[in-house]
């Protein structure tokens, strides 16, 4: 069990993991055509390769949790304002949930963000994603406001909660 930066050799396994995890997470929240549009627009091989080859404060890349060389979890994050960093995505394969993998991934990206002098960490969560809401509240994130869903398709009006927590020691 390791956490490492996504390798370009694992892109197609990663995309398969994302499709499964995204559909499982949102199947009872969003219409299937919306889910498929997001997968097609954001999780295409070209987009994943492009994003995977970036590594900066504002985009720290994809990190994957491997078990027996199989991707079972993933996280991505980056800077959105001075000393404010966001968790852009956190997924754990449905068959591997409730094993502490999400916590290991969140701790990993949090430590990486602290190294960049992050003092605040934020995350957006669908207002209907009860399990994610419970998870982030358990991790000491506080709900601060309602925001537009970040995918920003004009034909959809979904909302997210913005959560925040202090990283000051």
TrEMBL record:
Which GO terms label this protein's molecular function in UniProt? acyltransferase activity, transferring groups other than amino-acyl groups
Q: Which UniProt keywords apply?
A: Plasmid
SUPFAM superfamilies registered for this protein in UniProt: Acyl-CoA N-acyltransferases (Nat)
The UniProt entry, under CDD domains, shows: NAT_SF
Asked whether the UniProt record includes Phosphoprotein among its keywords, one would answer no
* Pfam families in UniProt: Acetyltransf_1
Residue intervals passing through the bilayer: none
Is Iron-sulfur given among the entry's keywords?
no
Chain ranges of the N-acetyltransferase domain: 1-168
InterPro entries reported for this sequence: Acyl_CoA_acyltransferase, GNAT_dom
What this protein is called in its record is N-acetyltransferase domain-containing protein
């Amino acid at each position: 069990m390791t956490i490492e930066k996504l390798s370009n050799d694992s892109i197609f396994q990663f995309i398969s993991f994302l499709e499964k995890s995204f559909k499982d997470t949102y199947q009872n929240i969003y219409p299937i055509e919306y889910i498929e549009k997001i997968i097609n627009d954001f999780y295409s091989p070209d987009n994943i390769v492009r994003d995977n080859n970036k590594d900066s404060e504002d985009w720290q890349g994809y990190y994957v949790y491997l078990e027996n060389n199989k991707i079972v979890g993933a996280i991505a994050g980056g800077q959105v304002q001075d000393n404010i960093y966001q968790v852009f995505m956190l997924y754990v394969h449905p068959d591997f949930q409730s094993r502490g993998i999400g916590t290991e991934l969140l701790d990993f990206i949090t430590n990486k963000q602290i190294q960049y002098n992050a003092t605040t960490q934020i995350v957006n969560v669908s207002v209907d994603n009860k399990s994610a809401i419970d998870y982030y509240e358990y991790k000491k994130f506080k709900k601060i406001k309602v925001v537009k869903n970040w995918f920003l398709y004009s034909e959809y009006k979904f909302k997210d909660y913005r959560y925040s927590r202090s990283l000051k020691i």
